[in-house]
Records
---
Amino acid sequence: MDSTLRRAAVLALGELGRSGEAGDRADAGRGLAGFAEMDEAVGPLLALVLDRENTFVTRATAEALLRRQERSGLRVVASALAIADPHHGDWIRTAVLDAFSVYADERDDAMRICEELAGEPDERVASGARDLRTSLAGITCVLHPA
């Protein structure tokens, strides 16, 4: 893995995330989600999940982070959820439903990660993880393990 190229990609996507066009910002959010484990991506991702101008950007970015189905994506979403206004919170929860309503084992894995995140010293992450876990627990999945 070339860390220089990865940083350059995060910087370029961060610039796209500051575009005046909602479609560009949504594309940036989906692209940056692939780099959620990088510290440089966290700030731009949070800004896109909490996009002030268009909740389409919120939903697209949150869903891309959640579809990673791993700790760094869930951590960013939890952090955003903790400080989101009610309107953005609703769109983040819609992304949670979209990302985890099919496979119960994927939802259950995400719930376990949220339990771990709820124990973090960063209160914003911990609070958001508890909220995210509650949202996940309310999902009735379509497919369950045999």
---
Amino acid sequence: MNENDLDAASRPFSSPALHGSSAAKPAPAPGPPRLHLLALNPTDSVTEGFLPAAARLGLAVTLLTDQPDAHARAYGLRDDAQREAARREEARRSEARRGGAQPGRARRGEAQQSDGPQGDARRGDAADAPPPPFPALDIVPCDVRDFAEVISRIAADGRPHAVFTNSDHLQTQAALAAAYFGLPGKDWRAALRTKNKAELRRALAAAGPDAADPAWSADPVWSAELATGQDPATLAGLDAPYPCVVKPREGVASEDVVLVGDADELVRRCREIRARRPGAALVIEEFLEGELRTLETLGDGRTLHVLGAFRTELSPPPHFIEERLHLLPAPPPQPHTDQVLAQLRALGVGFGVCHTEYVVQGDRARLIEVNYRAIGDQCDLVLAELLGIPLFEYILRTHLGEPLPDDLGARTDGRVRMEYVMADRAGRLASAPPASVTERDGVRLDYRPLRGIGEEHPLHHTNRDFLGVLRATGTDQERIDAAVAEFLAAHRWEIV
């Protein structure tokens, strides 16, 4: 699941009833530290990464979302009885912590066992059940795109210990809320300028040369902006370096990102995008040709760690869909890594996790975009596994105000290939392989379907066209590539 699925668009929400009383109430017993997590639709990063990490850290979670029903289904909290079971489990774990582990501190190496949230709910009495993979969880309806509403809802819930989101769309709101409550968090200005692609280009152009490596700023990326509501016809006379790229100013996941060859096509494509996104602001950028790479970083405002780097292979133009990623050997290649880090510093990025995409042109690293959150589409889950570190816990710890260690203790011998099986046409998925996990010759293959048999979809030209994802991990790249080729040749995906 990814948050860029437009089929899971925001739905109307309703505020819970407020009950007042003039009678004095006893102060509640101190509970576990509470994380306020902002989300749109459920994602694998949150479901499989951050929520289990919060449980291991002994945190209770208030999840603010404009899609509460979708999250309740995803976590097995489908009715009031199941929510009450979760509350009882929170009380039980809180009582256990008073005599055991310190709240907010995980005992390293300790794994919680469960047959999943559905199984825990079926038992009926959560107080007698082993700890579930999810933390004590309270799902609260909220217009999470409105930072003022987010702050209001958090304030009504009691003083938070941390405010966090992994959503591309909610970084600025979470940063503003954290700042309002005096909590550790990202600089809201950095969150805004990385989300707004036009502002990102302006900020980099205004930053001036970096003292350590001025090359990146000596050759800025050409860009122009079509403002909200501005007529695309005004672009007819634009002196653009064709071919160039058109994209939504605040877009993600290559949604409505397209290569255009001349002024007529530029105007036509902008009108097509506006038909799907009425009034949306667009950015026109120089087409950066070259090998596409990513840089994954994690910082606490003092130390900035490079977690790893991927090489990305895209579909042929005019669209830009990620077809596969390969983890590059550690340490990430120079001089490009230092150039990317210099640009991140110029943008004010350095707290929490960040996923940056750039193109290699000779000895230059030219930024495509900065996503101030963890890399998605299950790459973050695989990265945590390969590095052998509690990556999601580290990310949450930074938002709890804990410094990162100088050495994360990450492994450097792991290799991965992420292979995305994509639909090549609109239609109904008639046949596809089931989920499977196999291991042979030092290569582990984990295949996960992303679309069910019988589902019918249009062709989106984004990651919403993914039919499944194959995660191939090991230490030998040649064996990994051979295992992927064998798997793809042995299975068939049929769309009718």
---
Amino acid sequence: MKKVFSLFVAILAFSAVSFAQKGVIKFAKNENDFGKIEQGKPVTYVFEFTNTGTDPIVLGNVAASCGCTTPEWTREPVMPNKKGTVKATFNAGVMGPFNKTVTVPSNAENGTVYLTLKGEVVANKTAAPAKSGK
């Protein structure tokens, strides 16, 4: 009887922890297409997110898929219903199409989020104005 009661208590405790709310990270946009950008001119986009959960969110070490992209991010905890940002700067050094990923780990319920920067680096004469964020 003791074993059955102990098992029941353990299952109940596990269920309570499983249903506990956490922070939930919700990005307004997960991808930015710069279109055609000039070679040698870095471009930046700011991804904005909201904590739609009930606990604070803390971002881990945000990392880019290559050395040509530099991320900056909100370092302090993002409280429920508050906003944070991940800023990504791409150095357009090599001509041609690009598709870069920024990995955003966090303690949020939905865990790691992947953001994408894409476009095409062209010679200075043929570039259209870059679309940038904030």
---
Amino acid sequence: MLFIIWMLFLDTNSWLIHRELDQEIQELENNKEYYIKEIIKDQKDIKILKDSSELEKFAREEYFMKKDNEEIYIIEYEDSVPKNEKDD
């Protein structure tokens, strides 16, 4: 009985330590899956951005870049603008 208690709780290779390590391994595997999906998504985006028209579209949408002879108007809807409420 003493041996079982020793092996389950007190030993350096105890069941508790193995359980913690298994949880950490699972968490790392989940992170790995997430990052693999992100890499695949980014590779697709890079492939799309190799086309100059797609690159121009991306620059216009994400960074509000424009040609020299153009004007850009940014339209914000009421529900997307934070409201400034004053405490009176």
